[in-house]
Prior knowledge:
Layout: E1 11-14, E2 18-26, E3 29-35, H1 45-79
Antiparallel strand pairs: 1-2, 2-3
Amino acid sequence: MLVLSRKKDEVIVIGDDIEITVVDVRGDQVKIGVSAPRSVAIHRKEIYDAIRLENEAAAQSAHIGMNGLAGFLRKAQGSSS
Length: 81
């Protein structure tokens, strides 16, 4: 992990098109601004983790659903013979 010290209004650049600006510092709270292309998703870590877990659960549910459908189709084909 790269650790940098920045003061208010100073900027960190990531790649060619992402800028992180220190907007305000009060006590132990730092406000930052992020400028990035619309194609780059930006989330707080806890929100990102919640989205990832929800997507994994949906994918697992879809996988189980497809297995159930495959079993149903096998049974249906077996009974029509």
